[in-house]
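Appendix B. Raw example, untouched.
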Amino acid sequence: MTIRELSTAANDLSQSVQVKSQELTALRSDMAKLNEKYIGQVDKVIELQLAKDAVESELEELSRKLFEEANGMVANEKREKHKIEVAYEHLRKQLTETQERLSTEELQLNELRTMM
């Protein structure tokens, strides 16, 4: 090879190195931008996960309170039903006793009428 050919080859290689260097710089810039976007997305994912965890925690708390309230309402209804049943039974006994006394009084009244 001649000096001219070597010089041309060297210039070609120098230009090729410059092009590759520019491409490498552009790729590094693109990579830095992508890394920033990635970090931003990771931050958003973390934020969304925290929000999701907060909502799930609130849902669990509300569910617990709902079941506690429902259980309390069921217990109150059972107590009220028992009170009503006791009162009903008491009134039924009073009615039976009153009917028996009325029957006895009617018998006595009929006996008195027949005696008169």
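End of appendix B.
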